[in-house]
Amino acid sequence: MTHRENRLLLVFCIAFLVLLRTPSFFQPLWNMDEAETAVIADIILDGGIPYRDVVDHRPPLTYYVKALVFLFTGQNNLVAMRCALTLLMIAQLLLIYRIASHYISRSAALLSAFLFAFMTTTAFSPLDAFVFHTEWCVIPLTTLAAWLLLHSLAQRKHRGNFIVCGGLYGLACFAKQPAFFDMLGALAFLLFLSCSKNIRAVVPNTLSAAFFLLLGCLIPFTVVTAFFFFADALPDFIFYAWTYNTDYYMAAMTIPRRITGLLLGLKMACTPMNIGFLTVLGMLFTVLNVAASRNKGRDEQKRHILKLFFPFWAVSSCIGASLSGRVFGHYFIQIFPPFCILAGMAFEGMIAALGTLPLPRSFAHYKRRFGVAAIALFFIAIPGVLSLESLIPTIKRFGNPLRKTELEVASYINQNSTPEDRLFVWGFNPELYVLSDRMPASRFIYCTFITGLIPWVNKDPGIPTAHWAVPGTMDIMLRELRENRPKFLIDATPSNKGFFGKYPVKNFPRLQQLINSNYIPDSVAHDRNGRLHYRMYRLARPLPDTEHPGH
Fold first, then answer.
1. pTM score of the predicted model
2. CA–CA separation, 177 vs 175, rounded Å?
3. Would you say residue 405 has pLDDT above 60?
4. Which of 219, 328, 400, 503 is 20 to 30 A from 466 in CA distance terms?
5. How far is residue 390's CA from residue 399's CA, in Å, rounded to a whole number?
């Protein structure tokens, strides 16, 4: 394959990715995750600080990336946000191609790039694939860190390069906490290299590389901690970005459910395009290449030894992606960079194995081309076509994921209030803030922290959840409602969005009393089947600054 042909095929991979994602640009909103982070970005641009002024349990990097997009394109510009996501994915695709072309071959790199474009768009539901989830900020940082680590080991560069590498891993942890396991995979790889005398002779100073990597990781941790400290938000940051996840969000998931979630999640992520099989095969070929390189030159040995990083990366990313035990497709975005590179490794290994077969002399000239076509057909194309059957339900769901009711409610709020008016939604419906372009009246843009609902875990109406509620959150919410005086207060429990229907307002006397004393019923909204979804209340008189006794 000529260099020009290679570039044309790489451009095709990029165009293919853009083509697959273009329909997503025209949806008003995909899901509550997209809404939550968009609201937080709005509050940041309004001068707020995450965790202190608005609560969520994700790390902060994605909020600030979206705030930067909105700063230049306008508040809640979701089309611009999806364009930014596509550009980020193109950069990721090029990183994967660059790594694979250096450590495997250009043809295998093209396959890795194509698999990334295809898998990240079609392996999951649109609600996972097309939303700017935190994982999309994780993988460019961990992939760039992986490239810098391998490049620095190959060139015997230390200190500065490894410090930057550690800084990238540390920054990725502030996009999503499980990125920490990608860094652990890199450290495990460096420690593994240091354990073998023969390997140390080829790739020296791996322990010092591990030290400087850890040192670099401390830089973003120090900067972020200092930022929240001086913003008077450090305790809130530590609690919601760390403690809540360990003591509430993950603790509510039992060990058997975590194991089941791991197996189901890996099955979902690895079945399309046969990428799970190709990844395992790629690991096998990597080990065989290292064993076969012992009698080769030092540079060739080092090149093959460094390939061992990819199995370490794949395993550690799997652990991170499945840590919570939840079967959400976007959690497994984290695994695709190493999986796609190892799939390219398998592709190249199968072609090399085919080249050793005795074939008639008349076929010798076409052996590689026939081999490429046969392997692509039987190991990738046919399994890919067969996997489309499981994607048919996903394709059918490609329509507007929002119910018409949300759009109507948001339009009503927008028409009957001013941009300065605030809104509060009792429920799990942050999309109403985004669609109506109204700022929330409380830091709780969804109310699971107040009720103890752990989404999709203790959702059954018969399961009590009060012991999972964060202490003091009801007091904070009521105080903020009195201070900010939302023009509209919406009871979203009838919609049962996010299984929040188990928390009707009547079960919370203090909230019910606040509504009865200061709001009047304004309107209701039903779905197309006539089922009640939302009760809307309009502010009737200014709320008192202090709570009345007995509420």
1. 0.89
2. 7
3. yes
4. 328
5. 17
